[in-house]
Design a protein that fits this description.
Blueprint (H helix, E strand, L loop, with lengths): L8 E4 L2 E4 L10 H5 L2 E11 L4 E5 L1 H14 L8 H15 L5 E9 L11 E9 L12 E9 L16 H13 L4 E5 L12 E6 L2 E4 L10 H12 L4 E4 L4 H5 L3 E6 L3 E8 L2 E2 L7 H14 L10 E3 L2
Bound molecules: 4'-deoxy-4'-aminopyridoxal-5'-phosphate (PMP).
Amino acid sequence: MKTDVTNRLIWFKGQIINVNDAFINVLAPTSQFGLNVFEGIPCYWNGEAKQLYAFRLEDHYKRLLKSAKLIQLECPYTSENFKTALVDVVKANEYDENLSVRHTLFVDGFGSWGSEGPVEMFVAPIPRGRTSAEYNKKGLNCCVTSWRRISDSNLSPRVKCGANYINSRVGQREALRNGYDTCIFLNEFGKVAEGPGSCLFIIKDGVLITPQLTDSVLESITRDSVIQLAKDELGLRVEERTIDRTELYLADEAFLCGSAMEITPIYSIDRYPIGSGEQGEITKKIHILYIDAARGRLASRKNWLTPIY
Ligand code: PMP
């Protein structure tokens, strides 16, 4: 029988247990200093095929291992171990719905922020739409936050480390305090970076434009998928380049994207309406393509999917 969400089973330190029985020591460096790296792996249920597809699983694992390498977490597991844990825990819950699977490597024990280990792992499925409110909106009213995105000279924005999300938090909290859905960060040089948990694209005169990876953005898997789909399936010109703040306000269309966000149109930025102030035509096409690819309805992108059942 399918488990209810409050009693879901998770993979924790090598065992599959009820989430309520998984405990982490309060003094562990992961609790105190956000010393962990993680992925949110999207899995989409395809009702016709009666199959759950994990989206770009190998790419998520590559990024997880890169994140661990950067902050020097000695990971005792291989990509094969990751995959076995994910498949086992999803099957144990008998999930037949869209999920995000949180896959986290963390520093346990009684050490400090400089500790090497012990490194432990948990894998926890989260039915979609159960995290932040902005992930459930049809369109977004954004502000440019006064906080700057972390930079490669202090805390790398390229990798997914728990502590990075305090920067995301202050931007998001400022946006909510001021009546916006979410925010867009500028980088240390005042150029456009990304959202607190998503990457940004704008469209101007039919060209799709996104900040380059050296502009303080996460090496986002959705960003890469959008670029490939736009070029190969829609024949669009795509530019990865530095974006000025002014370009945000004058864009024809804009959207945020990410594994949780999917493709969500931006209706306004700092109260400037973007285009018509609704979902733009190109954004809509990209959204449909992305969802088709993730659900296994796009033959050319079947190689992005790993069937769970
Ligand atoms: N930027 C940040 C800061 C994020 O947290 C995320 C979500 N992982 C993204 C971008 C989008 O990355 P992805 O497409 O790999 O989910």
